[in-house]
Amino acid sequence: MTRVGPTVEQGVRPGTRDPRWWSLPRAVDPRVIWLAWASFVVEVVLIGTGGLVRLTASGLGCPTWPKCTAESLVSTPEMGIHGVIEFGNRLLTFVLVIVAVAMFLLVVRMRRTRPELFWLAFAQGIAIPVQAVIGGLSVLTNLNPFVVGLHFVVSTTLVAVTATLVYRSMNGPRTAARLVPGWYTGLVRGTVAAVVVTVLVGILTTGSGPHAGASEAVDGGRLHRTGFDPQLMEHLHAIPAYVLFALTLALVVGAVVLRLSSRWALVLLVVEFVQIAVGLTQARTGLPVGLVGTHMVLAGLLVGAVTVVVLSTRGSAGRQAVRERIAA
């Protein structure tokens, strides 16, 4: 017979089940963990599909917004593959809406016991219409590179929000306990600053290159770019990237010396290594769309990884209880 007992955060034994699985939880359970991960994955996938739209010159595949054309909400056969790709990217936003709404509903009853989960889920949900409006503006401004860049900034911000949602749902709320010395915290903050600069300069670099997001025929012969020299921007982009790599290497070494867990710093270092390798290869091979798209997705993973590095410098309450709940 199924046992009925308190939630894990109140001391339930592993292996027991709450028969009211369909009800909204009052404590973190596997559904919260899964949806937090789904939120993160969908945000990263959206970066990839957004890159696909841009790199296949499908940015104006749907030439208007919010409809795909003035007469049709969806793409039409006359619009070809570009319309399919652009409309497909818009449809994925609805998947994100479903995930975000479900995530919010699962944590709404925890707004007093786990307010950080409530507000993170709320932030994700409220950012979706903002992101949709910016995407619409990018279409209405014929893919102005600065508007498109703002779209990417919001996307990476949402990656950081959902990465925090995953970490907090799995490890419990933050405590006041600092797990690292002050100088290491300063090193982490410097790493965060380097990530921000690297991503922002990378956005301007992409906005200066050949991938305008639409063909000249679709865009009326006017490919909007930033006006910056692409080769100069590539060199400027490399500077904060190498500084970031050096700082992350220092984080790993510092963690080993202090006998701290270096797992997340190592993850960040690996992401940066692959990111640098892809960046150098794409610059030397004429910016092939596959590598540029990979570089964009890696930028999202970079933001997610550095977010977890920051979170891991502070203690978390309830980690064991949450793990027991997952095991159950």
Can you walk me through this structure?
Helices cover 65% and strands 2% of the residues. The protein contains 9 helices and 2 strands. The longest helix is centred in the first third of the chain and has 28 residues. The two termini are 16 Å apart. The N terminus and C terminus are likely disordered.
Please write out the topology.
Elements: H1 30-55, H2 80-107, H3 115-140, H4 145-171, E1 174-178, H5 182-206, H6 230-257, H7 263-284, H8 289-311, E2 314-316, H9 319-327
Antiparallel strand pairs: 1-2
Essential attributes:
328 residues; mainly alpha; two-stranded antiparallel sheet; 2 strands; 2% strand; disordered C terminus
**Helix and strand sequence:** HHHHEHHHHEH
Helix share bin: 55-70%
Low-confidence stretches: 1-19, 217-221, 324-328
Distance between the amino and carboxyl termini: 16 Å
Structure at a glance:
This protein is mainly alpha-helical and 328 residues long.
